[in-house]
């Protein structure tokens, strides 16, 4: 049985669908078994993110040295297999507008 991972990330609302499409294309959100579910995720909308770009930053949103706040979403999904988890992270990094997207990958136990 393949190892399962919980994959979550934060994304500006304007880029939510693009990032979800990218990770789903990489295989994230597919559940094994008879149901053959795909593109499954849980999304929390309207969190408020904040950051202040440093002197050497190249921000997609905001201005160097100024505090920026914006509405963001958090997406959580399942990756079955380390190869899918790594592919989903790579796809997120390519699709996400930030220089350093915030994400987490957590190995799950099957009880």
UniProtKB/TrEMBL annotation:
Native source organism of the sequence: Ophiostoma piceae (strain UAMH 11346)
Gene3D superfamilies: 3.30.70.120
UniProt superkingdom: Eukaryota
Name the record gives this protein: ATP phosphoribosyltransferase
